[in-house]
């Protein structure tokens, strides 16, 4: 897996269900506009996302996202189906250092989802996929301690340290772990 020191902060991500507190200075007096509750439309899952996500696989979280692990590991039996998290174009499909086999999908908003350690792949570079499409089977290839999907997200479409997949999927209406 590529290595980088890029920030894992999600740009533009809301920190809670309140609008920002605005402070201004007018004629020497401090004026504050109070925090207001967000409207239902502002806090609806997927409202700011380019697409509504699909569950990538039926599995338990065996390792979460943290400073030493830039994805989430979803473990289940060898051959468990893996699905595209959303629509897009396959930009990588094949052997990859550390993963054994991988698939990368670029989504309409420019973000990329990355799937690693597959037993078998059903998509090729250049394929257009739909969210929920069966793209691979869970494996134990590469640097792995058991069958699982390493699911990684890159908001900037790059190859550096990944962004938080749980936040990314949640913003698109899916909580991990999930059942397709």
Give the key terms:
single chain, 180 residues, mainly beta, 7-stranded antiparallel sheet, 2 helices, 12 strands, 33% strand
Kindly provide the radius of gyration, computed on alpha-carbon positions and rounded to a whole number of angstroms: 19 Å
- Please provide the count of β strands: 12
SSE topology string: EEHEEEEEEEEEEH
Number of helices: 2
Structural class: mainly beta
Strand content: 25-35%
Poorly predicted spans: 1-47
Explain this structure to me?
With 180 residues, the chain is mostly beta strands. The protein has helices at residues 40-43, 165-171; strands at 22-26, 29-33, 60-63, 72-75, 81-83, 88-96, 100-106, 112-116, 118-121, 128-129, 134-138, 148-154. It has a seven-stranded antiparallel sheet with strand order 3-4-12-8-7-6-10. Strand 6 (88-96) and strand 7 form a beta hairpin. The two termini are 27 Å apart.
Question: SSE layout and pairings?
Answer:
Layout: E1 22-26, E2 29-33, H1 40-43, E3 60-63, E4 72-75, E5 81-83, E6 88-96, E7 100-106, E8 112-116, E9 118-121, E10 128-129, E11 134-138, E12 148-154, H2 165-171
Antiparallel strand pairs: 1-2, 3-4, 4-12, 5-11, 6-7, 6-10, 7-8, 8-12, 9-11
